Recover the amino acids of this structure.
């Protein structure tokens, strides 16, 4: 207690007011000015009574300490503190212990995070072996679990970063699946969220950029697709993902008409493959020899080089014959791409022979990346030189039937 048994703030408020030559009503005016628009005060006379109470010994309550400090230009410790009490300099063990306990508080354990990450990994590895509509349900379920943890409590900072990293990969995976299932609008949203999550985690952005590159390609934003892939390639470590990103840049550059850039990107893909880590060939981020051959085929078609396209298709077949993992989607795209090359060479019988095996692909695997190859073939079959051809009529009917029974998102309750 200060002199006369009064608390320190009594003398401080009174002295600061008198030094400035203010009456209690004048001080009330300054408190209203200090409150501005962000603090609401009672009527003027009520504030004057509060000042009188404070100078009589009643401790100021919020927001008055802040307003006094603003009006007098001092800090709260000076306003309310008792400088004669050195006890504030003594370490408070109990307070520090409570602070340490607060730091350690979390709504999730490290083992749980590891289990979620393990599930994320296995979902990716089953990507090519599971109908995409079913896979999408599982991926979004995991994303919602992570989102609930992030938004439903607090974690240690390293745990929060790890959850954001996991969610970035899940969202990128969902982006790929949504695009495959003809929902480009949702794919774009998930791709943007994937990139934001990766940035928040301080994690590698390659998966999110790969997903965005694919989505932008199907939206016909070829320059954006090529640039996203190139950006991801430059940020990716030596993994199959880096190989894939170079191939995606090549594909988008070819569609853009920049064949020199496309060929250079394909060269970088082969170079990256030599130093890349082992590739299961099964995840959305895999790029084994058969998939690289598919990208080479696509660039050849864009360059109007059907001979090179058929050579690339043969390379894919050789890779599968040599033991590379067989993926139905990649195989169908190779077959349809080879069929397009045959149409470009006016060999309709060969085109029919190329596409016929893939026409039996199960509807749940008829993704946008597959059916769009047939849309491209159908467009070529409308050329004037093919008018009156019975084979063209047959091929176009086969394309119509195949594309009309395509993969669609499954209802979650059906899972």
């Amino acid at each position: 207690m200060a002199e006369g048994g009064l608390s320190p703030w009594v003398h401080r408020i009174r002295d600061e007011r008198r030094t400035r030559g203010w009456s209690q009503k004048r001080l009330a005016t300054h408190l209203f000015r200090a409150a501005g628009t962000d603090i609401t005060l009672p009527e003027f006379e009520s504030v004057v009574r509060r000042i009188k109470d404070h100078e009589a010994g009643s401790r100021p309550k919020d927001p008055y300490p802040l307003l006094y400090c603003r009006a007098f230009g001092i800090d709260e410790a000076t306003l309310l503190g008792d400088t004669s009490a050195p006890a504030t300099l003594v370490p408070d063990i109990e307070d520090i212990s409570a602070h340490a306990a607060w730091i350690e508080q979390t709504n999730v354990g490290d083992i749980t995070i590891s289990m979620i990450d393990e599930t994320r990994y296995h979902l990716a590895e089953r990507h090519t072996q599971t109908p995409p509509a079913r896979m999408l349900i599982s991926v979004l379920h995991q994303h919602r679990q992570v989102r609930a943890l992030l938004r439903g409590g607090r974690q240690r900072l390293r745990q929060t970063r790890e959850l954001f990293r996991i969610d970035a990969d899940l969202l990128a995976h969902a982006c790929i699946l949504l695009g495959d299932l003809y929902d480009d609008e949702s794919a774009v949203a998930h791709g943007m969220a994937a990139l934001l999550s990766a940035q928040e985690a301080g994690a590698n952005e390659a998966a999110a950029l790969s997903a965005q590159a694919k989505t932008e390609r199907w939206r016909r934003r070829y320059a954006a697709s090529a640039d996203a892939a190139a950006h991801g390639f430059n940020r990716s470590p030596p993994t199959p993902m880096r190989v894939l990103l170079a191939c995606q840049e090549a594909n988008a550059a070819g569609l853009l008409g920049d064949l020199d850039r496309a060929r250079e990107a394909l060269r970088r893909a082969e170079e990256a493959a030599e130093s890349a880590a082992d590739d299961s060939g099964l995840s959305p981020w895999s790029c084994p020899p058969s998939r690289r051959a598919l990208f080479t085929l696509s660039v050849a078609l864009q360059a109007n080089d059907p001979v090179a396209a058929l050579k690339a298709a043969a390379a894919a077949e050789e890779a599968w014959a040599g033991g590379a993992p067989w993926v139905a989607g990649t195989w169908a795209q190779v077959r349809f791409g080879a069929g397009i090359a045959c149409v470009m060479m006016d060999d309709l019988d060969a085109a029919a022979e190329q596409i016929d095996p893939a026409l039996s692909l199960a509807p749940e695997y008829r993704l946008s990346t597959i059916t769009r190859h047939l849309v491209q073939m159908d467009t070529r079959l409308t050329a004037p030189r093919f008018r009156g051809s019975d084979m063209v009529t047959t091929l176009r009917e086969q394309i119509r039937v195949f594309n009309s029974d395509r993969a669609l998102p499954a209802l979650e309750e059906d899972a």
Observations:
- Residues 141 and 412 are 9 Å apart (CA to CA).
- Confidence is low (pLDDT under 50) at residues 83-89, 411-415.
